[in-house]
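Title: Prediction job returns without error message
Component: structure pipeline
Severity: low
Priority: P3
Assignee: unassigned

Description:
Job completed but the reporter wants confirmation the result is attached to the right record. Sequence as submitted:
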Amino acid sequence: MRARLALAGMLAAGLAPPALGELAESERLLAVHPPALVEALYHDRVVLAQDGDPVAARGLVIFAKPVERVFQLLSQTSRQLEFRPDLAGIETLESLPDGTLEEHRIRILFLDIRYHLRNRLDRERRLIRWELAPGFEHDLERLEGSWELYPLPQDRTLGVFVTRVEVGPAMPSFLQDYATRKSLPGTLERCRRWVDGDGRIDD
């Protein structure tokens, strides 16, 4: 039932139904969400899906670019500086066959936070994953996440974003909610605009 409602959302948004293979994959993901959320996704292009986990967050994004181009853009992880105002700096420490090792510096309210990320890129599965790199000191206790990308009709892409952040006892507790909830809608919207602008965002 929800899959049919999600398909109806596509049609109402002016999207032609995808091919059967694509339909099965994208509809499988959308069918697990409430119809109202799917409708909001096709209207607003960015929604958060609540799952009750205080240290995790999930977002759905519709990009107006083909899936291969979205993967190519999001794979350029050091370019997050172009759409994430909380990032104070990114340094690529090592380029690896399946991704990168980077040092990130972010500014949240009055705090400077530093950590190292291991990014892993899987072009075949259209999957981008990251986690705190072992062997380094981090100002966060835990950070991991992913982008999963799925083709939609009319050369669009469904992006499923998941992040899990634990700030740890050394950080103020309000940062937990800020890192996983309050800042995420704006970050995903700016990311969508950056991708839709083919690597440019106009404020």
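Comment from assignee: result matches the submitted record. The beta strands are 46-49, 56-63, 87-96, 99-108, 111-122, 127-132, 142-152, 156-166.
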